[in-house]
From TrEMBL:
The lineage of its organism: Eukaryota, Sar, Stramenopiles, Ochrophyta, Dictyochophyceae. Residues 62-100, 350-370, 601-621 are annotated as: Disordered. It comes from Rhizochromulina marina. Residues 269-654 form the DUF4139 domain. InterPro entries: CHP02231, DUF4139, DUF4140. This is Protein F37C4.5. Residues 23-154 form the DUF4140 domain.
Amino acid sequence: MASEEQEVKEVELELEECLVSDVQVFLDRAEVTRVIEFTPLSAGAHTLVVKGLTDKADTDSIRVKGFQDKEPRAASAEAAEEGSEQPVDAPPPPGAGPARGQECVILEVSFDVHFRPVEDGEPGKEGELRSKIKEIAAKKQELDDALRRVKQQDGLVQDYLKSMLVSTASPTAGPGASQAKAPPPVGTDLDTVKQLLAFHSDTASSADNRSRELQEELRGVASELDAARASLEEVAWQRTQRSRPIASRDVTIAVNIPTDPLPGQTIKLRLTYLVKGASWVPTYDIRTSLGAKGEAANMSLTYFGVVQQSTGEDWRNAFISLSTASPASGGSPPMPPTRQVQWAYSARPELQQQQRHVRRGSQRRESRMTNVAMPQQAMMPLQRELSIDALEAFGNATSGGDRGGDSDDEEEADMSFATMATAGVSAGAGGSATFHIDRKSTIASNNKEHKVTVAIIDLTPDIRHFCTPELEERAYIQARATNSSPYPLLESNRVSIFFDGNFITTTTIKHTSPGETITVFLGVDSQVKVEHRLVTKSENTGQDGGVFRRQQQSQQLFEYRTILHNTKLDRAIDITIVQLLPRSTTDKIVVELLKPPRREVPVTGEASGNSAGEGELQSGSVMQNKITNNVVFDKNIAPKGKIEIPFSFSVQWPHDAGTGKVEVV
C-alpha cells in the first residue's frame, strides 16, 4: 500500500518580524543574529521563508541554529561556556524536566532571490484621492476669500476713524495763503472721541481673532492637501511599478517537527549572517592630573567604540559587541620575494638639495601646527628621531639610581589596577578580543556615529618632562603608564588629551596590548624654561703634508650651552634632554663627541645587546642612542633650581676629500 505523502506546511515571515538579538561588529563588517519564532499547529515538515534580506548580506555566511528558550547573554567566554545553548532537536538532560520549547530538526537552509509581483492597490483609490483633493482645494479657496474680506473690513474701519479724528486742510484758504487746518469732523467732544476709540477697539479685536482662526484653519487644510497629493503620487507610482516584479532576497529553512506540539509551544531559531557596510573605530579620552604635593599622579582612560552602519537594516534594542578581529585580512602571509643587490645610482646634487629643502619646509609646517602639544622629536622619521620607547627609557629611570635584577617584579608590584565599566571582554584567536556591551542599543542604518562606552581604566602614570633644545626651547610634560587592564587598546588617531581638567590636544596611540606601555604628551610646561645657545662655531681648513710635517685635516667645532630653569615653587621635576649629535654618512668624515667626554657616555645596546637602550638610562646619567646617534641626558631639577648642560662635538675630514666642504643637516 502506497504511503501517503505528507503535506509540507509553509510559513512566510518578513525580516522585520524576526527581531535582532545580537550584533557583533567587526572593523569592516558585522554579524547579525535574529530570532525566528513561529507556532506550529501540527507535527511534520515545515518550510519557513524569511523574506526581505538586505542586499548587503553575505549569502555564504547564512547560518541557522536552534535554541530552546531565551538565555541570559554571557559577558565573557567563561560565562558563555557555562550557559552554552542546547540544539533544538536535542533531548533535555536527565532530571531537567520537560523541554520548554517544541523540538524540531533543521533539515536544510537555502537562499534564493524571488521576484514577487506588487500587490494591486485598492480599486478606485486614485479616483477617491482626486475627488478629495478637489474638495480640499475648494475649502481652502473659501478660507482664503473669508480672510481677505476680514482684512478689507478692518481696512474700512481704519480709514473711517482716520477721517473722523484727523484734521484736514481748510478749503477756503487761497493759493497764496498758508494752509489752515480745519477741526476734525468729530469736533472737540471727548465723549464722542472715546466712543469712536471704543468702537475701533472692539472691531479690531474681533477682526484679529477671526483672522487668527482663519489662518489656523488654512494651515490645517494646507497640510491635509499636501498629504492627499503625496498619497496620490504614491498610488500613481505604484500603478507604474506593478508591471515590474520586486526582487525579494529570501532565506528558506526546512524543518521537521517529530511530535505534535502542545498548545502554545513555539519554535525558536537563530538566523545569523554577515553584512557589509558596518564598522567601528576606537576613540579615547585620556585625563591626567598631577595631584597634590606628595601624592601620585593619576590617569583615567575612557575607552569608546564608535559604531557606524549603513547595512540597509536597523538594529533595534539589540546587544552590541565589538570585535578587534578583521575578517577582511588575508588568512595567509604574503609569499617571500627574492631581494637583489645591484649598483646604486646616486641622485643629482641639485635634486638632493631640493629634497632637503622640502624636508625642512615640512618640518617647519609641522612645528607650527603641532608644537603646542607634541615635541618635534616625536614627529621625526626614524633616521633622526629618538623613539619614545627607546630614547629615554624613562620608565626605568629612578631617583634611587640603578635597579637590580628584580626591577621587573618591582615595576609589576607598582602597577595600578584598572577599574572597568560597561563591558565584558573575551579573548579570541590570533590576539583578537571581543567587547560585550552590557546594555541594549538601537543603531539605525543611517551611517551616523553611535558612541558606546567600552571601559573606564584607572592608571597610575609616571610623569616627567622632555625637551629637544636644538629643535624647540620648550619642555613638554610626558606621561607613561602600563595598560594593566584586560583590554587591548587598538591603534587610533582619535585620542583626546586632558591635563588637570584642560583640553590639550588630539593625538594618536599605537596598538597597546595588556601589560604594554602607553606614552602620551600633555603639552608644554610654561614653568620650565629652556634656553639653548650656540657658544662656538669655528672651522679650520686643513693643509697638505710635506716631507717634515703631517697632513692637517679640516675641522669644525660646535659648542652649545643649554640652561634649564624649574620655576616651580614646591615641585622637583625629572626631565629628559636630547642633544642632536650628527652621524657621518662616510668614513672620510669623523664626528667626535667632546662634552660630555666620550668615555663617560655609554652607547645603548653595547653592554646588553639591546639596541633600544631600555633600562640603561638611569637617573642623572647620560647615554648615546645607537639607533639615532643622539645623546640623551636624564636630570632632576629641584624647585626653583637651574642647571646647565654643556654639549660640544667636532667634525674632521681630509681637506682634499669629496668637495672639501662639510655641512651638518
